[in-house]
Every structure is written in C-alpha cells, then in structure tokens.
Write a structure and sequence with these properties.
The N and C termini lie far apart (about 50 Å). This protein folds into two domains: about 230 residues, Alpha-Beta Barrel (TIM Barrel); about 30 residues. The chain has about 290 residues and is of the alpha/beta class. It has an eight-stranded parallel beta barrel with strand order 1-2-3-4-5-6-7-8, surrounded by seven helices. The chain is built from eleven helices and eight strands. The structure holds 3-methyl-2-oxobutanoic acid. 3-methyl-2-oxobutanoic acid binds next to strand 6. The site of 3-methyl-2-oxobutanoic acid has 11 residues, from strand 6.
Length: about 290
C-alpha cells in the first residue's frame, strides 16, 4: 500500500485491512491489475450493482467489480442496455463503493454518455469518478472512442476498453451475435485493440469473439484482456453476476456458467413464506413482542 498513498490507500474512502470493511487484501488499483498480467495471475471480474453483492464478491476474492450497464437488463428490466442513464450508473456505483471493497470499482459508461463529443465523454467519466466514487470507467468501441480515452487518461481517469460483441451496438449488429468471425473483422479488432492500448487503456474487455482471437489479442497486448465469451486464453474473465447466480430469467448465452440457482432458492423461500402467512404459522410467539 505504501507505494500509493502516505495515508495507506489511493483514496480515503476505504478502510482496507479493517475486518468487514474490505478485508485484509491490499487495494486493487489499475497499475496492480496490469501487474497481474505480468505475473500471469488470472484476473477475476464480476458485475455488481448493490452494496451486499459488492461486499460478498469482494470478500470472495473478486479483483474488479464492474458496475456494468447490464444493470439495465438484469436489474431494471429493460430489454437492452440502451435505456441506462449516467444517473442509473452513478446511483449503483455509489452503492457498490459504500461496501468499501478492496476490489477496483469500474463504472460503465452508458449509451450516449460518450458518443456525442470527447468533451461530453470526459465530463461524464469525471462524474462517475467524482460523484460516484469509481476507480475507473469502461466504454465500448475502438477507433471511434480512442481520442476520448486519451482525454480521460490525460485527466487521470483509468479506462477499461471493450471490443467485440459490444451490447450498445445491438441495433447496428442486428442482434447479439458473435463478432469477428471473418479475417477482415479479426484484423480490425486486433488493430483497434492496439489503438486502445496506445490511447492508455489499462485493460480491455473482449466479448463474444472466437477463442483463437482472444488468445492472439492477449498475446499481443501488454495490458490485460478480460474475456466474456472470448475463450480461456484471455488474461482474466468476467461474468454478469445475475447469470452466474441463476438470478436472470432471460436468455443465457453459451458462455455463461451457472454456479448457483438463487432464482430457484428465492422462489422456494417466497413460496414457503406465502404458505406460512396463509396458514397463520408466521410469526411465531418467539418472533413476536
Ligand atoms: O455491462 C456489463 O456487464 C458488461 C460486461 C458484460 C463486460 O459490459
């Protein structure tokens, strides 16, 4: 910790090392995430949108908490991520930050919060850091966002890139389809990955691309790649937490591995509660004053 802040942490918001307040792990920072690639240490990323999930994921060893705009589909009930606003991401980033995680908190830049101009992009990225407490921001796209990335990095904001099946382009793609299957598209993705690294990104999400391309991008870049449907050759992996937990009831892509059936567990618990109330078994004497 001492390499970053004389008071013991990069920002004063967390109490790293205090039990229940982020655990004894050192704070994860963007330079530390890059260092993990150099050490060959796989980087674990999960989405988080609320305080308890952030706390549990952090205590489980997750290294990056992404307040993804997947918020729109898995929490807010939208059909795509397009309606998500900067205010939505700010609200949920603050909740995640209140968990005082040792993990790096990355706030996703929603659709139309960075496409209008580089100034708009910088101002919104600044809000996510300044008002939301995020450690970094993420945005989708390659060449078209490289100048905006450079502005953010110059302002001191760590940026995570995102290439491949970028969900904010669902209308242009005509659906959620695996990207870069052809040679020309693969070359373009590779070129854009290099452009994002040159612009200053500290990491790059690769979504919905052939595994072989995931390996190639990961080999060629000095910054870590974080895969989601991009094969095991990436430097880290991310899943949407609601998919992993079995809490999202919509379509599950092939790359999702379900580690729990919390949706089923919730349904069972709610059904038992309904039955207990209907039968006047709840509350008991011990649960009453
Ligand atoms: O919004 C999100 O959750 C994401 C991840 C799937 C990478 O962008």
């Amino acid at each position: 910790m001492s390499d970053e802040h004389p008071a013991g942490g990069p920002t004063p918001r967390r109490a790293a090392g205090v039990p229940g307040e982020g655990g004894a792990r050192p704070r994860l920072t963007a330079p530390r995430i890059i260092e993990m690639k150099r050490r060959g240490d796989p980087i674990v990323v999960l989405t988080a949108y609320d305080f308890p999930t952030a706390r549990i994921a952090d205590q489980s060893g997750v290294e990056i908490l992404l307040v993804g705009d997947s918020l729109g589909t898995v929490v807010l009930g939208y059909e795509s991520t397009l309606p998500v606003t900067v205010e939505d991401i700010l609200h949920h980033t603050r909740a995640v930050v209140r968990a005082k995680p040792a993990a790096l908190v990355v706030a996703d830049m929603p659709f139309m919060s960075y496409q209008v101009s580089d100034e708009q992009a910088l101002l919104n990225a600044g809000r996510l850091v300044k008002e939301g407490g995020a450690d970094a921001v993420k945005l989708e796209g390659g060449e078209r966002v490289a100048a905006a990335v450079r502005r953010m990095v110059e302002a001191g904001i760590p940026v995570m890139g995102h290439l491949g099946l970028t969900p904010q382009s669902v209308l242009a793609f005509g659906g959620y389809k695996v990207q870069a299957r052809g040679e020309a598209d693969q070359e373009r993705l590779l070129r854009e990955a290099h452009l994002l690294e040159q612009a200053g990104c500290f990491s790059l999400v690769l979504e919905g691309i052939p595994a072989r391309l995931g390996v190639q991008v990961s080999r060629e870049l000095g910054i870590p790649t974080i895969g989601i449907g991009a094969g095991v050759g990436c430097d880290g992996q991310v899943l949407v937490t609601h998919d992993l937990l079995g809490l999202f009831l919509g379509h599950q892509p092939k790359f999702v591995r379900r580690y729990a059936d919390l949706g089923g567990a919730m349904g069972e618990a709610f059904t038992r509660f309904v039955a207990d109330v209907k039968a006047r078994r709840f509350p008991s004497d011990a649960e009453s004053y």
